[in-house]
Amino acid sequence: MFPSKTPEARRAYREANPEKVAAYAKAYYEANREKIAARKKAYREANLEKVAARDKAYRGANLEKIAAKGRAYYGANREKVKACREANRGKVKAYREANREEIAAKVAAYAKAYREANPEKVAAYAKAYYEANREKIAAMGKAQRLIKREVRDAA
Asked: Under a CB-based contact definition with an 8 Å cutoff, are residues 40 and 29 in contact?
């Protein structure tokens, strides 16, 4: 494909012939799709931690880009997404039921880690919630005290 073996000549050829290079790459991919997929799979399996770290770093650095892409896809394929959600609703529910304890443990661990890492945010949220729902909280406390009193008196 390349007329010369030197890196400079290859770079010049790629810059001068982007359509030819793209067509060659596409043809190579089509001809070797299974081989490429097997090589990628073997690499992922051999480097799980490295791949996970790379993917996590990418997601952290591109949150907005990923969210925008998801919103665009949802907007363009709204009916397809809704149909897929509806079709898999039973599978999701069955998975949640089968793994309830594991999921609850993961959520609790995440919440605990967040509270320990962000005590100021948690305190500010709790204070704001208390200020916004003071009457509701007082009513719930009163109801709980009444229930405890009734249980104590019945015993």
From this structure: no
